[in-house]
Design brief:
It contains two helices and 15 strands. It is mostly beta strands.
Length: 217
């Protein structure tokens, strides 16, 4: 039985990634519209059903989590890549925490997070797959996570109050652009918006019906 799916399209090529109740994960590729899908990768790193999966922004690998305590990283080829039947998972990690799902990768590809049946949200390094943080707040199982998009540094500068300048010379007044002071309310609003855009938000949802919001790394 299918438990999780992901898909990515590159030009006329479609790539479908599937996770199964048996613990298998497979990759199917359609090279051209109308062509049959071919299974080009298959692995069974899990002993329990696959619960979630996510493709890294680099699009060269993907992650799977399961009802067991394993998180695995799998290969994905480049568009022109040649598949080999002996491909195996890049890394299989025994986390000792079963029931991790809702796996999501942050848009910069540096970290990923899982939601645990033990009411914990765990953050891992996407490169080393080492556990970086355990977020504790919910009292019952967590089932979903989401990252905010990583925004580039804001190009909007928060300007301080600029005094209004008056010139006695009429010609200077006509040529000069007069800067009026920015209200303190506008300045505070700009700072709040800049902080919201630059904060590394992680949201987690639980069986308790609550959503927790975290500022992480």
């Amino acid at each position: 039985m299918l438990m999780a799916l992901n898909i990515q399209a590159e030009s006329t090529r479609l790539q479908v990634i599937a996770g199964y109740e048996s613990g298998h994960t497979m990759v199917f590729v359609q090279s051209d519209p109308g062509a049959q899908f071919q299974r080009l990768y298959s692995a069974q790193p899990h002993t329990q059903p696959v619960l979630s999966m996510a493709i890294l922004p680099s699009r060269d690998c993907y992650l799977t989590s399961s009802a067991d305590a394993v998180i695995a990283k799998h290969p994905l080829p480049a568009v022109q890549g040649v598949w080999k039947t002996e491909l195996k998972p890049f890394k299989v990690v025994q986390t000792k925490h079963s029931g991790q799902q809702g796996l999501q990768v942050r848009s910069d590809g540096k970290i990923f997070a899982t939601a645990g049946w033990d009411a914990r949200v765990r953050v891992y390094s996407a490169k080393t797959m080492k556990e970086l943080a355990v977020l504790k707040w919910h009292k019952v199982g967590c089932y979903a996570t989401a990252f905010a998009e990583m925004e580039p540094p804001s190009s909007v500068k928060i300007e301080e109050n600029v005094p209004f300048k008056e010139e006695d010379d009429a010609e200077s007044q006509n040529n000069e652009i007069l800067a009026r002071p920015m209200s303190s309310v506008s300045t505070i609003q700009q700072r709040r918006e800049a902080k919201a855009q630059s904060t590394h938000w992680l949201a987690a949802g639980s069986k308790d019906g609550k959503v927790s919001l975290w500022d992480i790394y």
